[in-house]
Amino acid sequence: MINARQLEVLTTVIEVGTTLRAAELLGVSQPAVSNMIRHTEDLIGITLFERAKGRLVPTKEARLIAQEAQHLFMQQKRVSRIVREIREGSRGSLTIAASPSLGLGLVPRVIGEFATGAPQLRVSLELGSIDVICDMLASGQADIGFALTQPRHPAVSHEAVGAGEMVCVCPPGHPFARMRRIGVADLNQVPHISYSAATPLGQMIDRVFAEKGLERRYAFEVRHTATALEMVAAGLGVALVDSFGLIGRRADNLERVAVEPSMPIRINAMMPRLFPTSSLAISFLDRFRTVTGAAG
């Protein structure tokens, strides 16, 4: 059976193209790498490389094996990290994946509170779509994720940890700023910044408009709340955004107005089903619930 060292040699040679360079990276001699490749081919009965102009060209079979090996290497790294966290206690690391609307405001605020008093704690924050977040969790690249969209990935579990709503934001001095509440129909009467219909929030807003017998009309299309807020601050129009995107932002260049009908939204915390949840991830989730005021 092929072992981890043989897989490491195989993937390194594929990456660099020569046994000489692979030997340098692996800290062994070139003959040792060549012998390992030949031994592996004899062991599994498959040709792994063809020679072309002094370089080793991996066969289709070799690339397939190397691709699968990457999952093994990722698991090994995760195990090593878990051992390190157990040994070092608070000197562990935590990788968080979040949607941009949460990752540009609320999540950094929680990280700031969570990391207080733990100078050796290393936190990595990655932003992405719900699909990216789920892929990171399922592959072990992230410990915990946060998004407004409910995940539908079999390898990812989720729970609601915070409640908010869609709100209208406008520049100071805009006619909407003098109103306590606006209707969704009012948005069609002014320059309007809105989410793409391909986004979950855009689809939710379209359903609300459709229930009112309306078609959403807007001048500027965005995919992320942060982009919409910057455009509003620049005076390009008003926008209907999730309330979580306003956390941590300056209040002097944006006015917030309630919207009728109300459009409640929830934060979903996500964890991988295939890997044990680290103690750091559990502690971070507890702090997140405290900050959002959710009971769990």
TrEMBL record:
Pfam family, one: LysR_substrate
Keywords assigned by UniProt, alphabetized: DNA-binding, Transcription, Transcription regulation
Domain HTH lysR-type: from-to ranges: 2-59
Xref: InterPro entries: LysR_HTH_N, LysR_subst-bd, WH-like_DNA-bd_sf, WH_DNA-bd_sf
Family statement drawn from the similarity comment of this UniProt entry: Belongs to the LysR transcriptional regulatory family.
Protein name: LysR family transcriptional regulator
Organism of provenance: Paralimibaculum aggregatum
